[in-house]
Design brief:
Distance between the termini: 55 Å
Low-confidence stretches: 1-18, 23-28
Number of helices: 12
CATH topology of the largest domain: Rossmann fold
Strand order of the largest sheet: 40-41-43-42-44-45-46-47
Radius of gyration: 26 Å
Number of domains: 3
Largest sheet: 8 strands, mixed
CATH architecture of the largest domain: 3-Layer(aba) Sandwich
Shape: globular
Strand content: 35-45%
Number of strands: 47
């Protein structure tokens, strides 16, 4: 198979030059000490492939960047032969009537129309909210060899082709537009959208952060209609975020509903393009509800709307009549606490007039099939393990494809199963973390695989479990670089808690651990919505923890109760009192490590560190649970759940009026008198997720109690504390953390 280069994530040239000179100057084969500069300077960055399956052929399309020129192409590779068969687009565009190519621009991503004749090229991407973005978009017509901008009025979000490939919908300045691909005519479906007031067809920051939702519009199968949401944020109060890059700082008002406060109002509309007819679909008038999904029914004759009440314990699927907008409930779920939502849930099976539904109604996340004919639901997958995501259905052969952690709570694997729950088969055999891209025919897939010790490999497979050809990417160069350094290994461990719960973690021994006792750092990387202990490659954060181990620390990470992946009961152990179960588990883990992990730990020098929710756990450890840990590092922490966004806070704590004791007893700001010292409090001043107010309030209360602590604020940085350029902010942060811990524990003196 022909070899080719691919785009590599951005790296800092000066850091690479320094490291290359350092390596060439080595006279011996001794390995180099690990450094934060190498980690955050990009020396250990992975090769990553921007790849998408084609829609009408058993091929994949991917971005190829020529390192020696300014050429960038989208190439097609055949699953069946392993050969490059076509160039779908190149940035060396030849204008009509000319013979000399003009370099277009470098681009970050692309999408193909359903008939593969059009290529949506995305460039100049910039963040919108935490996971979404907007781009300058262009459409390349492969047949006519013409490139046109989607719009000249700005960057767009969530551009998508209609199923017949004749139109393109997109969001611009919070309004929904549809462009005709033949005539270039643009129709403004909505006109009153505006930033921080009205949003059409996509999630606002609250819905994206709280529910994981993004695009909230859907094309009809015939491409004649489009259903979409309207989010009205005007009832929501503004929170001021200040940027300090001017003599008189700018203050940006962010719509941010805190726990117990008014929330956005959401409506659903259907627009018929040929008749230019707008129909409002009835979702009720309750101001305290959420709309968490809009889809077309399997037969395309109605719309299915997911409606969730504000306590998040009652979920309905409404079926809407597309002619008059009337709705009726066809399915509902109820829980005594809260219902776990799955973004992009509801996968239609047209041939059976049914849809697949992911739910944990029986205590574990599993797949069910709901029949639109009988209005009944039957279970497809079963077991004390979790389905992580539905990947698709092979309607011709009757198989459902899904990702699951059945082999291990730390991993993710591809499975297929019949609709009736028989003939289940695992299609990715290696333990670790698999992410897959299925071909449209479901005969082939791309496996994107890694584990804790090995960077990502991109490999083509058939669904008959046959590996095809050589890997697309093996990251051999990165493996060679890793072998040049002294890097501590990672060991997984598990133990049973005092209440017989099986817990999973990983452990890193310090380099040259023999002899003297060493401090222990426990990193809390999990949350109610995120596992911290997974068997996957995590280059920079995990490498930074390995760096701290190389400096003389034992390092551990634990998925405490309250984290996902191990069933509903395990995740909900912290309901209405988040933080208590987690701290109990961390203290049990500390005892287990000292007792059973062959670790010579200095028990007077144990620290806990975390970010976001983990930062909250750290501040709770430093206050309510003092003096259980000698030092704590809290990055972007919540310090009072009354100050956090309502979807997350109310899901796990209910409304403040319903659970006042829970809010009071799990707020670090209320326990500053317990604090004994050793806190590093870190926050970005422009954090729009966990506001700076959280750290400022805790800082005020600690000062009022005459307590000494360290605080470290990063100007104009957001929740992730990155600068999107050269990682200087992250490098600076981890140097600060290292120096703080060294000073606390006398390491290196």
């Amino acid at each position: 198979m022909k070899s080719y280069a691919v785009r590599v994530t951005s790296i800092t040239g000066c850091a690479l030059l320094f490291l290359s000179l350092q390596l060439s100057a080595q006279k011996k084969a001794d390995k180099l000490p690990l450094t934060l500069e190498a980690i955050w300077g990009g020396y250990f960055d992975e090769q990553q492939l921007v790849v998408h399956p084609m829609n009408t052929q058993e091929k994949i399309a991917f971005i190829y960047s020529d390192k020696n020129s300014s050429n960038e192409l989208i190439l097609a590779l055949d699953f069946t032969t392993g050969r490059l068969v076509d160039t779908l687009f190149t940035n060396q565009v030849i204008p009509k009537g000319d013979s000399v190519p003009v370099t277009f621009t470098f681009f970050e991503d692309f999408e193909l129309s359903p008939n593969d004749s059009l290529v949506l090229v995305k460039t100049q991407a910039q963040p919108l909210f935490r996971i979404s973005g907007k781009e300058a978009c262009y459409v390349w017509n492969r047949n006519k060899k013409v490139l046109r901008a989607v719009t000249v009025d700005g960057k767009v979000s969530y551009a998508s082709f209609s199923p017949d490939s004749k139109k393109l919908a997109y969001i611009l300045n919070n309004n929904l537009y549809v462009k005709d691909m033949e005539t270039e005519a643009v129709l403004a479906v909505t006109s009153d959208g505006s930033m921080d007031n009205i949003t059409y067809g996509c999630a606002n920051a609250l819905y994206e952060n709280g529910f994981g939702l993004r695009k909230m519009y859907s094309w009809s199968e015939d491409g004649q209609s489009i259903v979409f949401t309207r989010i009205n944020e005007q009832p929501v109060k503004n929170y001021p975020i200040t940027y300090y890059d001017k003599n008189y700082p700018d203050v940006y008002g962010q719509r941010y509903p805190k726990a117990g406060e008014a929330i956005p109002q959401v409506e659903v509309f259907l627009y018929n393009l040929p008749f230019k007819l707008l129909t409002k679909l009835d979702v009720g008038v309750n101001p305290n509800q959420y709309i968490t999904g809009v889809n077309w029914s399997p037969d395309g004759k109605s719309v299915l709307i997911q409606r969730l009440n504000r306590p998040q314990n009652f979920l309905e699927i409404l079926q809407a009549n597309i002619k008059n907008g009337n709705t009726k409930t066809i399915y509902s779920e109820t829980k005594p606490d809260y219902i776990k939502l799955f973004p992009d849930n509801l996968f239609c099976i047209k041939s059976r007039n049914s849809f697949l539904w992911q739910t944990e109604k029986n205590g574990w996340s599993h797949i069910y099939e709901f029949s639109m004919d009988s209005l009944k639901m039957k279970q497809v997958t079963t077991g004390e393990w979790e389905v992580q995501k539905i990947k698709g259905a092979d309607e011709e052969n009757g198989f459902v494809y899904y990702m699951s952690n059945e082999p291990s709570p730390r991993g993710s694997s591809l499975y297929r199963i019949k609709y009736d729950g028989t003939q289940k088969r695992r299609l990715t055999d290696k333990n670790g973390w698999h992410e897959v891209l299925l071909a449209n025919t479901k005969r082939y897939f791309i496996d994107i695989y890694s584990n804790q010790d090995n960077p990502t490999i991109y490999q083509m497979y058939s669904t008959r479990e046959q590996k095809l050809y050589q890997p697309l990417i093996e990251n051999k160069e990165l493996k060679n670089r890793l072998n040049q350094y002294k890097i501590p290994g990672v060991d997984f461990f598990s133990f049973k808690s005092s209440d017989d719960k099986l817990m999973y973690g990983y452990f890193i021994h310090p380099m040259n651990a023999e002899g003297a006792k060493h401090p222990l750092l426990i990193y809390n990387g999990g949350s109610p919505e995120l596992q911290g202990v997974t068997d996957r490659w995590n280059d920079k954060i995990l490498m930074s923890l390995k760096y701290l181990a190389s400096q003389g620390y034992y390092v551990a990470c634990l998925d405490t109760r309250g984290t996902p992946g191990k069933g509903e009961a395990y995740r909900k152990a912290n309901y209405k009192k988040i933080g208590d179960a987690e701290l109990d588990d961390l203290m049990e883990a500390k005892k287990f490590i000292i007792r059973s992990m062959n670790a010579n730990v200095d028990t007077s020098k144990v620290a806990v560190m975390g970010w976001s929710y983990g930062g909250y756990i750290s501040t709770l450890a430093a206050t309510k649970y003092a003096p259980s840990f000698a030092a704590t590092v809290a990055i972007a922490p919540v310090t009072n759940w009354r100050l956090y966004e309502n979807i997350f806070a109310e899901r796990y704590m209910t409304m403040p009026s319903e659970n006042p004791d829970g809010y009071m007893n799990n707020a670090p700001v209320n326990f500053v008198n317990n604090y004994k010292g050793g806190l590093l409090l870190v926050h970005g001043t422009a954090d729009d997720n966990v506001h700076l107010q959280n750290s400022m309030v805790l800082s005020r209360e600690l000062v009022n109690a005459n307590k000494q602590f360290d605080q470290y604020y990063l100007t104009d940085r957001g929740h992730l504390l990155n600068d999107n350029v050269n990682n200087i902010t992250r490098l600076n942060l981890f140097i600060k953390i290292r120096n703080f811990l060294n000073n606390q524990f006398g390491v290196g003196k």
